[in-house]
Sequence to fold (94 residues):
Amino acid sequence: MRAPTAVLIDETRWNNAASRLLKGELVTRGVSYAQLAQRLTQTGLRETQASIANKLSRGTFTLAFFLSCMEALDVEQISLTTVLGELRLGRSSS
Fold:
């Protein structure tokens, strides 16, 4: 395993990266916010289309929410290579 590159990444950039990662999984699977809300409700997590949109817009959500979404989307594996590369290059300003 490589040693981590020492790069200062502020919290806003981390939030944006997490949001992009989750949005990307939604797009890849063709799942809307409304559909995700329905899937999360079936697992016992009460979310609405609006609450999901707000969380993803702000990029502020818990790891528990993120993992619940990954489970609801049947995601078994994710790659952080692209996300971390963009962060290190400063390309996560959106």
